[in-house]
Amino acid sequence: MSFLIVFVCLLLLILLLTWGKLNAFIAFMLVSVLAGLLLGIPPEKIPASLQKGIGDTIGGLLAIIVLGAMLGKLVAESGAARQIANSLMQLFGEKYLQWALLIAGFIIGIPLFYGVGFVLMVPLIFSVVYQYKLPAVYIGLPTLAALSITHGFLPPHPSPAALVTQFHANMGLTLWYGLLVAIPALILAGPVFSRFLRKMPATPNPMFKVAESSSSQVLPGRYNSFFTALLPVILLMVTTACTHILGATPWLTLAGDAPMVMLLCIIVATFTLGLAQGRDMKQLMQIYGDAVKDVAMIVLIIAGAGALKQMLADSGVSNEIAAAMQTWHVPVLVLGWLMAALIRACVGSATIAGLTAAGMIAPLMVQAGTNPNLMVLSIGAGSLMFSHVNDAGFWMFKEYFNLSIKNTLLSWSVMETIVGTAGLAGVLLLNAFI
Q1: CA 145 to CA 103: how far, in whole Å?
Q2: Main-chain dihedrals φ then ψ at residue 401, nearest 5 degrees
Q3: Is the pTM value of this prediction over 0.90?
Q4: Which own/partner pairs from 224-228 qualify as long-range (CB within 8 Å, at least 24 positions apart)?
Q5: Closest by Cα among 203, 265, 210 to 234
Q6: Spatial distance between the Cα atoms of 69 and 388, rounded to a whole number of angstroms
Q7: Which pLDDT score is estimated for 204?
Q8: What residue ranges in 284-369 does DSSP mark as E strands?
Q9: Which residues of the chain fall short of a pLDDT of 70?
Q10: What is the DSSP string of 181-234?
Q11: What parts of the sequence cross the membrane (predicted)?
């Protein structure tokens, strides 16, 4: 009976989000309360479960997400992202423009949230398409694949960061493993797959050419832009490596803590991309305030997913699901990936898919002794699977590149499926050696 209740609750969540067009946080809260009641949690204990689920999930994430949003917003507003893209295009030359934009997308995608990175990179892609008369989808898809991969695989993006907290994984180690998995997946879904799309018709709007050429913003220096954008990755990777070599000393533990890393990065960026570029503190605080508004709903969605996870845990049904899954004789990493992929196909949101799947797979992961860092990546890969008509990214790609639905499915949706499948393969390969 418990399994039927969970299934009905998940189905209701999907219907509220898709058919009902309900706000994701409200949908999660309603379904969490209903799940608690149906699973036998006393009514007077439901508020405490909700508070615990929200608090435990958001407590360790709020600083990471908010400070990460501030950094990404400043990287975009200051022109550092444009400087990175321009520098890479100059370095690689006309022959390798696709690779230049792909690497730019990957670097810019680390500090920027997916939607911001998408809107920022599209004019750069189209300016190259117009200037060199190249096929739009062939040039653009690898760059957008890079943004998708950083969104699904790499902390400090919200979904991977939330999964790291939920599975008690190590942020720095997850980032190391994530890079090992992400790069082959990106090459397959980007340059390799796009070779088959050279002749796909696309007529991007000419307004992007005008927008690009009319930009008169004074850009920050090349090294300044690269250093500031990549600083979170540099610090997390260096502190993790030092911890493995020297052991977990008190100062290394403090320096390697993800919120501390992000706090240091925003302090550095305030000077390098803010005050040093002629902005005053009032302007910078306005940028940071706008960044918080941009991520408020993401924080609430994560909080709502935490509430549902807690209801499943407090009712004991999570352990029942874990026990039942043990009889399936399917590796836990594959099960987590499959759950996230199914929810992604139904709901469309990678963040919701990853967090919902995590709440169900966590007890089984503990029982099976699965590496939590790889579990983060497995679910992240599953949450990127088959983007179609219920995903905002699908429609953004279709409209910006002016494609038919059929060609959007053949390009964007297949690319996302390659990313998710290659990600799982990379995780399983890593698992064989770790």
Answers
A1: 11
A2: -95, 0
A3: no
A4: 224/80, 224/272, 224/273, 224/276, 225/75, 225/79, 225/80, 225/81, 225/83, 225/84, 225/87, 225/273, 226/84, 226/87, 226/107, 227/272, 228/71, 228/75, 228/80, 228/265, 228/268, 228/269, 228/272, 228/273
A5: 265
A6: 27
A7: 67
A8: none
A9: 60, 204-217, 318, 321-323, 325-326
A10: HHHHHHHIIIIIHHGGGTT------THHHHHHHT--PPPPPHHHHHHHHHHHHH
A11: 30-46, 58-76, 96-129, 136-154, 174-197, 226-246, 258-275, 295-312, 332-362, 374-397, 409-433
Quote the tokens at residue 354.
Answer: 């990853």
Cα distances (Å, whole numbers) of residue 315 to 215, 219, 309, 325, 358 = 56, 55, 10, 18, 16
How far apart (Å, rounded) are the C-alpha atoms in residues 121 and 105? 7
pLDDT attached to residue 419? 95
Q: Which residue has the tokens 């300044």?
A: 224
For residue 215, the tally of other CB atoms under 10 A from its CB is 12
327-342 per-position pLDDT tens digit: 777 889 999 999 889 8
Tracing tokens 């408020």 back to the chain, one arrives at 296
Kindly state the tokens that stand for 311: 């209801």
